[in-house]
Design a protein that fits this description.
- With about 325 residues, the protein is mostly helical.
- It has 2 domains: about 1-30 and about 175-335, Glycosyltransferase (Alpha/alpha barrel); about 35-170, Glycosyltransferase.
- It contains 12 helices and 8 strands.
- The protein has a two-stranded antiparallel ribbon. The chain has a two-stranded antiparallel ribbon with strand order 3-4. Strands 5-6 form a two-stranded antiparallel sheet.
- It is globular and about 45 Å long.
- It comes from Catellatospora aurea.
């Protein structure tokens, strides 16, 4: 199966001089829905992973970084929703968007090749680390940003404290071997919880905690495996004892698995995790329950979900970034 190179054309299409439009009708941006910090932060993660970005991709990173600086309050919290009228629709808070903002800022601070972008991102990241969220997913996303900073600077005290707190926020594994997940319900981007436990354990050199994180990742992988490839948790989630829906599978769930598999492979050196990473790429290329390709090769956009009737052909920011992120990991794999 030939894996395509990341195509940023649709990301460019969804971005104006303010930020990244959240939704699209097919490949056309829906301006009336405005922007959200969640997606802009994801955009900064993806653009910062490019080691040799074009001038256009640098412009996107600059735009996303500026948006996040504007979204951040003096407390370190973030607004999430900005209307096309450039007015915030919510107070600054510590939900998932705070965590993803720190993920984006931490990635830019650690990886972006432009020095002023790294410096500005690190300043905003440090302000954000003064806060902690009550939500495990938000803490996990923030912890992944902290892990990025620590890889670049292992002595960063603020990042180490945030990463440790993020792993603690995930909670201990469940006692039931049939449901070791630390939460009673699987929702969205589930693998990020296992990934932050793995990242924290690796940073501290804790083999026991690393084993726990890898076990959680293997379990969430197995739970999301089907006869035709990945069968990820659909929108709406799933808990034991419930009937599990087979469709409305979300690309963000596949991308979270790809992120976690890439981290597990890097930490352990075990190529088996790269085989799992191949399965996430394959899901976008049609190895899924519907046998449906989940991206538009003409626009570069990712489809918004896998429904009972095939792909949702709208190409919003979240799904497009999920596609790009997964393809970046595939490109970065060490040749066998």
């Amino acid at each position: 199966m030939k894996v395509p190179e990341p195509n940023f054309a649709h990301l460019v299409r969804l971005t104006d001089d303010t930020g990244l439009f959240e939704h699209a009708r097919l490949a056309v941006a829906r301006r009336e829905h405005g922007y959200c910090t969640d997606d802009v932060a994801r955009g900064l993660v993806v653009t910062s992973r490019e080691a040799d970005p074009s001038a256009e991709l640098v412009r996107l990173a600059e735009c996303y970084l500026t948006f996040l600086n504007h979204a951040q309050a003096k407390t370190g919290a973030f607004h999430n929703r900005l209307g096309h009228d450039r007015r915030w629709a919510d107070p600054a808070g510590l939900g998932d968007w705070w965590g993803r903002a720190l993920w984006g800022l931490g990635t830019a601070a650690a990886r972006h090749p432009v020095p002023w972008i790294r410096d500005s991102a690190l300043t905003a990241f440090r302000l954000g680390t003064s806060q902690r969220s009550a939500y495990p997913h938000a803490m996990a996303f923030a912890g992944l940003g902290a892990a990025e900073v620590l890889r670049a600077d292992p002595g960063d005290v603020d990042a180490a404290a945030l990463l440790s707190d993020a792993a603690t926020a995930v909670g201990p594994p469940g006692a039931d071997p049939d449901w070791p997940w630390p939460l009673p319900r699987l929702t969205y981007a589930n693998a990020a919880l296992a990934e932050v436990v793995i990242a924290d354990a690796a940073a501290r050199g804790d083999d026991t905690a690393l084993g726990t994180g890898l076990h959680l990742l293997a379990w969430i992988r197995d739970v999301q495996s089907g006869p035709r490839g990945l069968r990820v948790i659909p929108a709406g989630g799933w808990a034991r004892g419930e009937e599990r829906a087979g469709r409305d599978q979300q690309p963000i769930e596949v991308a979270a698995l790809a992120d976690a598999f890439a981290t597990a492979a890097a930490v352990t050196g075990d190529r088996a995790w790269e085989v799992d990473l191949d399965r996430t790429v394959a899901w976008f290329l049609g190895v899924n329950d519907a046998g449906a390709v989940m991206w538009d090769e003409h626009t570069g956009g990712g489809y918004d979900g896998l429904t009972a009737y095939g792909p949702n052909l709208n190409q919003g920011a979240e799904s497009t970034l999920a596609l790009l992120s997964t393809l970046q990991h595939a490109r970065a794999k060490v040749p066998a």
